[in-house]
UniProtKB/TrEMBL annotation:
Family according to the record: Belongs to the DegT/DnrJ/EryC1 family.
Entry protein name: DegT/DnrJ/EryC1/StrS aminotransferase family protein
Keyword Ribonucleoprotein tagged: no
Swiss-Prot/TrEMBL GO biological process terms: polysaccharide biosynthetic process
Swiss-Prot/TrEMBL keywords: Pyridoxal phosphate
Residues with the N6-(pyridoxal phosphate)lysine modification: 156
Source organism of this protein record: Marinicauda algicola
């Protein structure tokens, strides 16, 4: 058995799925999943995505010839809001599918979302790219919906350097997906350079968002400029790396959960945390600060040697003529979130020092600088 086939079997077993199809990256898995669903429903072109999300899913939606439609998120979690989804599904024709992501490694309300999708007669793709090892009600992430996507690329819960898969219980979809995966090209030799060029250009444009709103549409065009970045097969060597990494899942989860708990204990209790559910696989530990505080806090953390990010901006304006303010939950996440590292690069001492830095930095803003949170 090839390493890729062995991996497919292992991933299906780990998630309780009947079928798995390996791909070069998680974005490829989403692209193939969309194509397989579109082949069944050629009259449906709309794909519903959360309005806070990595840019890869809406990018491959466009590249698959489909229309991304965005659903607002819960400002307290950053996850797709079932109430907003229900209103969207009731407002028009059934979309091709809903893509529901477990953002930041924390479970979204996937069971409620699944019920809404079944009632509307639309397919559900569970995006578990950031949530390998997470669970919802005792069920593993990757076991929900008509199709699920997992990823083992850069910064993921189990970072094996690349690779992904789409999982399903539908034998017909699995056969279609496998045929599409066999036809994928190899990973382009220029991938690393293209990725570096993309990141350089993205951050340059992101710095202009406030002064030049059209920069957001330029990011959308940038996302679509190199389709080859999103679509390639899983090579045998990479499949073997993932197989070798899978036994580290429990240790990786334990470490991340321990780091999240250290942040929880060391950060001032009045600092607002992004709400988490049990069973999560903390991709980052995220806090919410006032918009006027964030830039200086991020700069200070990075200057002091602590990793921090501010993911994600609302993707809707990148792909349509719409303002982030159209999605108030997502707008809050975009302007307030600070993500703190939980991976193997950090440890309890570093978390303690980063937390102390944050506590002191926010205290300097005065009594109005920290939003009180009911506990």
């Amino acid at each position: 058995m090839s390493a890729a086939r062995e991996l497919e079997t292992a991933l299906a077993a780990a998630t309780g799925r009947r079928h798995g199809v390996a791909t070069g990256r998680g974005a490829t898995a989403i692209w193939l999943a969309l194509e397989a669903l579109a082949a069944r429903h050629p009259d449906r072109r709309r794909v519903v995505l959360p309005a806070t999300l990595c840019l890869s899913p809406p990018s491959v939606t466009r590249l698959a010839g489909l229309e991304p439609v965005f659903c607002d998120v819960e400002p307290e979690t950053g996850q797709m809001a079932p109430r907003a989804l229900g209103a969207l599904l009731d407002a028009g024709e059934a979309p091709l599918c809903v893509i529901a992501a477990h953002l930041y490694g924390e479970p979204c309300r996937i069971e409620e979302i699944g019920t809404l999708c079944r009632q509307a007669g639309t397919a559900l793709i569970e995006d578990a790219a950031q949530a390998w090892g997470a669970s919802v009600g005792g069920r593993p992430a990757g076991s929900f919906g008509d199709l699920s996507v997992v990823s083992f690329g850069h910064t993921k819960i189990l970072d094996a350097g690349g690779g992904g898969a789409v999982l399903t219980d539908d034998a017909g979809l699995a056969e279609d997906l496998a045929a599409r995966a066999r036809a994928l090209p190899g990973k382009p030799a220029e991938t690393a350079q293209w990725g570096a060029d993309y990141r350089s250009r993205y951050y340059a444009l992101a710095a202009e968002f406030a002064a030049r709103p059209e920069a957001r549409r330029e990011v959308g065009a940038l996302c679509l400029a190199r389709p080859e970045l999103y679509r390639y097969r899983l090579e045998e060597e990479q499949a073997r790396r993932i197989l070798d990494a899978l036994p580290r899942t429990a240790a990786a989860l334990a470490h991340r959960r321990a780091m999240a708990e250290h942040y929880e204990q060391n950060l001032d209790p009045e600092i607002e945390r992004l709400a988490r559910r049990s069973g999560g696989a903390p991709w980052r530990f995220s806090i919410l600060v006032e918009p006027h505080q964030r830039a200086s806090l991020l700069a200070g953390l990075r200057g002091a040697g602590f990793d921090a990010s501010a993911w994600y901006p609302c993707p809707a304006p990148f792909f349509a003529n719409v303002s982030p303010e159209h999605f108030p939950g997502s707008a809050q996440i975009e302007t307030r979130i600070v993500n703190l590292w939980t991976d193997e690069s950090t440890n309890p001492d570093k978390v303690c020092r980063a937390s102390t830095f944050i506590n002191e930095a926010l205290a300097q803003f005065g009594s109005s600088g920290v939003r009180k949170v009911a506990r």
